[in-house]
Amino acid sequence: MDLNLVTLVVLFFAVGAIYSAAGFGGGSSYLAILSYALTNFSEMRTLALVCNLVVVTGSVWLFWKQGHVIAKRVIPLVAISVPASFLAAQMRFSQATFFGLLGATLVTASLAMLIQPKRTDHNRRVASWWDEAAIGGGIGFLSGLVGIGGGIFLSPMLHLLRWDTAKRIAATASVFILVNSLAGLAGLLVSDQFQIGDVNRLWLLVAVLGGGQLGVRFCLSQVAATRIQSLTAVLVMIAGVRILWRVV
């Protein structure tokens, strides 16, 4: 099934808007879409990570201006995740192995997003520095393997832990995606797997930039945040199941 460039641009714009509204970059769905449009596996991973960067860079800037990024709380989560993502991104798999891993992790992440306790700002839990570093490191390694930023794994975990407010979790997930996407791209570069392909693919970056800016402003206004997260979870579930179906 081939998707033309116009269709890709529309889909990437929509993914950027929906995912950024929940504090994500959309890497998982970019990979799912690209799996129908491209055959070059290295191009798919590279494009997904670059699109992640475009979306979350703007998101992090807006979250920072709004005061939702707390550096001392983010550092433990990214301290080990960055080198872990860098190393994992250099690993090579067959396409069947990669998509099997990606599909399984997306389904798991979507379930974690859907099955969550009711959150309030009055019953937060405090994890130790090392606990948060271990969580970040594990998610960073898994993210490096599948070629995404990892926010889709981190955010449900932080919500389950009642780590902080929904806005701060979204902001933290955006920072996490930013640094891990950079680490993943660096890993692809040093392992000679970094490939953008046709120059026309740059239109995809324009699409996710526009969609991402629209989505993050929706998130910052906190309009129907729970519905946005549920919609995101359903989209991730669909992408994961479709990828697994293709592998089987």
Automatic annotation (TrEMBL):
It is found in: Cell membrane; Membrane. GO terms for cellular component: plasma membrane. It is a multi-pass membrane protein. Its main location: membrane. The keyword Chloroplast does not apply. The keyword Membrane applies. It comes from the Bacteria. Keywords: Cell membrane, Membrane, Transmembrane, Transmembrane helix. It holds the Pfam family TauE. The chain crosses the membrane at residues 6-34, 46-64, 70-89, 96-115, 135-157, 169-190, 202-220, 227-245. Belongs to the 4-toluene sulfonate uptake permease (TSUP) (TC 2.A.102) family. This is Probable membrane transporter protein.
